[in-house]
Amino acid sequence: MFRILAFAILILSTMSATNAQSCQPWEGFVENNGVRTHYRAAGSGSLLLLVHGFPDNSDTFYHRVPELSKHYTVVTPTLRGFPPSDVPEDDDAYALPNVVGDLVTLIMHFNARQVILGGHDFGAAAVQILALSKPELVSGLLLLNPPIIPRLQELVNFDPEQKKASEYTIHFQKYQVGDDKEVVDKAKFIRDPARRKEIEEYLAASPVNGMMAYYKKNYPAPPYGQISPMQNVSFSVPSLI
């Protein structure tokens, strides 16, 4: 009897250790057309994909993951161009449809039929394009400080106030490898001192040419009216007249 009880306790202890290990956060890479995207993941359940913008990285959602992972499999990728993900040299690699391809690859990696998407800044632009182009994959959409697709294109092209508000991006679009990184410093707008210091150190240690290519390939600049990959997205919405 004692041996059976001891064996049962051993099995239960092993199962508890295995379950505890399976609940621990993990990380990895997925590859899309030769470009590797790093991700962190935690929890279990329906897939929740949270995508950062500039000048952040996947740590943008660090403080939200512990609570959210109680209910979802929370995945926070690091966009291409942001280490430790790959940083392609070709600016064309940063057109948002390519980024959407990275996200679809990630969804497939987790064998998810549907996903709840969340995004900030350029991450919000990418998840909107994914939701518009592949609505069957998306069960929910969370947008933080988003450029609204495709309306932002129209505003930047034709609205004087939005043109003025968008002028800060001109410095980003003119950036060349070797230029002073001070011109791309948006970390100063981060209110939390600790987080601001983290991002400043991250940018100082990272190549930023890929980050700037997002603005070169996806954001209109003078002369306004340039062709953007976001204008090629086709979708339909219900209308009431």
Automatic annotation (TrEMBL):
<feature type="domain" description="AB hydrolase-1">
    <location>
        <begin position="47"/>
        <end position="149"/>
    </location>
</feature>
<dbReference type="InterPro" id="IPR000073">
    <property type="entry name" value="AB_hydrolase_1"/>
</dbReference>
<keyword id="KW-0732">Signal</keyword>
<dbReference type="GO" id="GO:0003824">
    <property type="term" value="F:catalytic activity"/>
</dbReference>
<dbReference type="InterPro" id="IPR029058">
    <property type="entry name" value="AB_hydrolase_fold"/>
</dbReference>
<dbReference type="InterPro" id="IPR000639">
    <property type="entry name" value="Epox_hydrolase-like"/>
</dbReference>
<dbReference type="InterPro" id="IPR050266">
    <property type="entry name" value="AB_hydrolase_sf"/>
</dbReference>
<protein>
    <recommendedName>
        <fullName>AB hydrolase-1 domain-containing protein</fullName>
    </recommendedName>
</protein>
<dbReference type="Pfam" id="PF00561">
    <property type="entry name" value="Abhydrolase_1"/>
</dbReference>
<feature type="signal peptide">
    <location>
        <begin position="1"/>
        <end position="20"/>
    </location>
</feature>
